[in-house]
Amino acid sequence: MSTLNNLTQKEKNFLVKRIINKGQHNMLIAIKKPRLSRKIINLKSFLGILMLGLVIPDLCSAADFQATKINKRDNSEMVIVPAGEFVMGTNKVYYNDEKPAHKVYLAAYYIDKHEITNAQYLKFVKATGQRIPKHSNDPQYDIWTEEGFPSGLDDHPIFDVSWKDADSYCKWAGKRLPTEAEWEKAARGVDERLYPWGNQPPESVGVAVAGQWEGNQTYKPVGSMKLGSAYGALDMAGNVAEWVADWYDPEYYRKSPGKNPAGPETGFYKVVRGGSSLNVRFYLRSIDRDFDNTGNRAKEIGFRCVSSP
Q1: Looking at residue 65, what is its pLDDT?
Q2: Residue 268 sits in which domain range?
Q3: What is the pLDDT of residues 218-244, one digit of tens each?
Q4: For the chain, which has fewer Cβ within 10 Å, the N-terminal or C-terminal residue?
């Protein structure tokens, strides 16, 4: 019989929340101390053990916490990003809108493991009557017709969608677009990595950069690069860039709140993150901030969604 049997359900749930809040859910190690009583391991001392990443097996089932979940509306797999602080932005000599580096606390959330695909977007179009993806200015970048998209592209990322299209999709699926801070934490983690996979240049890990438009073959199936972020989200650099919820303000980091920032209240452009495989490597950095008009439908921009636990 493990020592957790000496704790109440309320205490167990509290301990699990502490683990999630410290971002240690992936460090759990099973231990057993059958001879220790509650007098020896009370709640305070048990928390000391947890800070070392040690926990008893049935602690994991003490609360309704899942590392991944499936969204029923669009069948997206989603990965958890635990609550806690991370460093957003940079003090290095890049663009001024990426400065200063500042600590941000975010509540826990789920983010789509993959970018939204053609097949998922087609289900949305059929269910709502939403317009099909079409480039804003140049039909040579269109791959969809009124009948749908070409065969073999079911699992390729959607593009030629505006911010408004992306926002409508996420709401239809019972989710929402990520805030800029949520997107950056999911990509960057808490170790201030330069790219979602680490600090190695994209070319050294097989991520295409500075590519050319090749029609149906411009982008790869989602997840094919197998390079996950610290939380397991894939393709957060390369393939398509991604819309996020925030209005763009180049000075926002100098005045943003330290807890769950949601971006400026108004603006002219929406933020775009991640960089596409058509961009040079500089734009694939996890701190890079781009922007576009809310109504523009570009060949480089797709999206993914988030939801609350």
Answers
A1: 52
A2: 68-307
A3: 999 999 988 899 999 999 999 999 999
A4: N
Element housing 181 (H / E): helix 180-188
Q: What is the pLDDT of residues 268-299, one digit of tens each?
A: 999 999 999 999 999 999 999 999 999 999 99
Q: Walk across the sheet containing 290-292 and list its strands.
A: 290-292, 270-273, 241-247, 301-302
CATH of the domain at 115: 3.90.1580.10
Residue 82 has pLDDT above 70, yes or no: yes
Residues 89 and 155 in one domain: yes
- The separation between CA 3 and the C-alpha centre of its own chain, rounded to angstroms, equals 36
Give the containing element (helix H, strand E) for 49.
helix 43-50
Domain boundary among 21, 38, 59: 59
Q: Indicate the number of domains in the chain.
A: 2
- Distance CA(233)–CA(80), nearest Å, equals 9
The residue among 59, 85, 101 that closes a domain is: 59
Contact between residue 150 and residue 177 where contact means Cβ atoms under 8 Å apart: no
pLDDT digits (tens, 9 = 90+) for 291-309: 999 999 999 999 999 999 9
Q: Tokens 């609550």 sit at which residue?
A: 83
